[in-house]
């Protein structure tokens, strides 16, 4: 959640926005038709159900609330006893290039895992569009991850393709679990909170345009175009170069081996070297 506190004519007004499930926990009242009343369990159930329906359509739901206080309010109480106002649903459509990049990654044998702050239902809807996940069993929330021991996480880590509502500590646990299973991990990120997991991954990739200085310093690679597809193109280029190096080495070794065998066999027959140094060169 995020709040601003405004002092208007000596009255403290707190305006808060955040995930609806988290915001409702701090709300004691609801505003309906410009009238405040106490919020009920039925209100919460109805609001969460509506938000869940929107999230299942890959919409991001952002809720709003406020609080008015006529006397001094401790800082730790700014986001308490709020009055729920409403919510908006926004769509951030998956780019076609992202879908193609994920498909190319799968073709290259790379398993893509999405770590997001979105609601689990929203994350799954996006994951379906990206062909990352197709069932609830492939999605893990921060609450479930928090309850799991490292041993339990290791058992299921390779079956999970979406992690929702995770914090920086969880990201590090995810990277460590994947590494413990023998995977080479690459982590992308752009914020200060991503720095620990970027540093922990085998290859940390920071966003060059939107990335913070901290995330860039913690990374091994910086994407100048902030495009996930660039990573996949880099993998293909790297593999192409590696294959060419292998072929070149095999070619050179083959020629040298043929020269050595020819000299060795002819030397046994004639007891003299059949080739001079100038002939080999």
UniProtKB/TrEMBL annotation:
<feature type="transmembrane region" description="Helical">
    <location>
        <begin position="248"/>
        <end position="269"/>
    </location>
</feature>
<dbReference type="InterPro" id="IPR001757">
    <property type="entry name" value="P_typ_ATPase"/>
</dbReference>
<keyword id="KW-1133">Transmembrane helix</keyword>
<dbReference type="InterPro" id="IPR023299">
    <property type="entry name" value="ATPase_P-typ_cyto_dom_N"/>
</dbReference>
<dbReference type="Pfam" id="PF13246">
    <property type="entry name" value="Cation_ATPase"/>
</dbReference>
<keyword id="KW-0472">Membrane</keyword>
<dbReference type="InterPro" id="IPR036412">
    <property type="entry name" value="HAD-like_sf"/>
</dbReference>
<dbReference type="GO" id="GO:0016887">
    <property type="term" value="F:ATP hydrolysis activity"/>
</dbReference>
<protein>
    <submittedName>
        <fullName>Uncharacterized protein</fullName>
    </submittedName>
</protein>
<dbReference type="GO" id="GO:0005524">
    <property type="term" value="F:ATP binding"/>
</dbReference>
<keyword id="KW-1003">Cell membrane</keyword>
<keyword id="KW-0812">Transmembrane</keyword>
<dbReference type="InterPro" id="IPR050510">
    <property type="entry name" value="Cation_transp_ATPase_P-type"/>
</dbReference>
<dbReference type="InterPro" id="IPR023214">
    <property type="entry name" value="HAD_sf"/>
</dbReference>
<dbReference type="GO" id="GO:0005886">
    <property type="term" value="C:plasma membrane"/>
</dbReference>
